Amino acid sequence: MRIALGVEYCGCGYSGWQKQPQQKTVQGVVEHALAKVANHPVRIVCAGRTDTGVHATGQVVHFDTRAQRSERSWVFGANANLPKDVVIRWAKPVSGVFHARFTARRRRYRYLIFNRAVRPTFLARRVAWAYRPLDERLMSEAAGYLMGEHDFNAYRAVACQASNPVRTIHSLNISRQGEMISIDIEANGFLHHMVRNIAGVLMTIGSGERPPVWAHEILEARDRKQGGVTAVPYGLYLTHVLYPDQFGIPSRPAFVQL
To answer: Are 100 and 61 in contact (CB under 8 A)?
Structure first.
């Protein structure tokens, strides 16, 4: 039997999603908790591996099991064995052709920027902090250059292993509520550090250091060295993974609002 799960976590205390020797990872604690419920070792596959310090409200995973358990048992049994900063939101049996990563059609991320002169306290490590005033209108103008299908080589990490840097951004919206700026982005896929590099460029433009057209110039350069600073991981949340309707995966976006 194949089971899909929705997972929510704060990435602050973890060395990213992917299981690593001698490191505390989200995958490691989730597999440990599920193994307690299944009574056998469990290996999970996720929709999108997140880096150290990155959070998720809408991560999706799948695993195969011979154990017969109800959806409620998978959720509450696993949660009883998980640390308080990781939780299973839902569980659902799926067909064997479902794959958390490869059958995903689109992914959505939210990047949160706390914009004031002094650093945050309660939101520390939950948001990025920009002490210089940011103009979200300039950021929105710049975001327009990134819409659609492009070669995002200049917006990915140097160590990115993806063979093809072409991705399609379907939406990229900038909004402000008081001191909080949100960057909401949806694409058919993301390269390593792509969202954080976009956020870094948009913040530089929002501060007035560069004009909005700089976002386009970086695209055209196809050179990561032209792309500016990678934004910190703490403001980044994986909020939603979209799948074909046939799998019945919960489709309500799990946006984070602080």
So the answer is: yes
Domain count, the chain: 2
Residue (of 229, 226, 219) closest to 128 by Cα position: 229
Quick check: is 51 catalytic? yes
Residue 176, C-beta contacts closer than 8 angstroms, at least 6 positions apart: 115, 136, 182
**Counting Cβ atoms within 10 Å, is residue 3 exposed (0-12), middle (13-18) or buried (19+)?**
buried
pLDDT class for 251, splitting at 50, 70, 90? confident
Q: Is 75 left (phi over 0), alpha (psi -120 to 50) or beta?
A: alpha
Assigned domain for 127 exists: yes
Task: Say whether both 111 and 232 belong to one domain.
Answer: yes
Q: Which of 103, 130, 159 is the last residue of a domain?
A: 103
CA 63 to chain centre: 20
Where does the pLDDT of residue 9 fall: very low under 50, low under 70, confident under 90, or very high at 90 and above?
Answer: very high
Tell me whether residue 250 is in a domain: no
- Quote the domain boundaries for residue 98: 2-103
Residues 68 and 78: their CA atoms lie apart, in Å, by: 14
The catalytically annotated residue of 51, 85, 135, 151 is 51
